Amino acid sequence: MIVIDAASPTPPYEQLRAQLARQIQDRSLAVGTRLPTIRRLAADLSLAVNTVGRAYRELEEAGLIETRGRAGSFVTAGGEQALEQARRAAHDYAAVITSVGIDPAEAIRIVEAALGRTVTP
Question: What is the 8-class DSSP label of residue 75?
């Protein structure tokens, strides 16, 4: 289920993109799943067609979906590839942190800061 918060400082296209990406990566949307048309999803979510179109374009650029012309947009295996790439990067990061002697809690704070999250002491 997609929920767009009109009061959020995050633009609607980004809320939509992030929620669909999360569903693809956690496999709630399986590889091969056909997504609603841009017009249909825009109507369902009370969004502008261009807003949904931008979210779909960004998902396609990230390799998470592919558009097959009039056949529609489908979830690709790119979500699994992105997770594997993230796992490899995390493994490499952990190796660097260990080799330079940084405390694991500090390493996590570094990652959270890089992701732009609020870090708690």
Answer: E
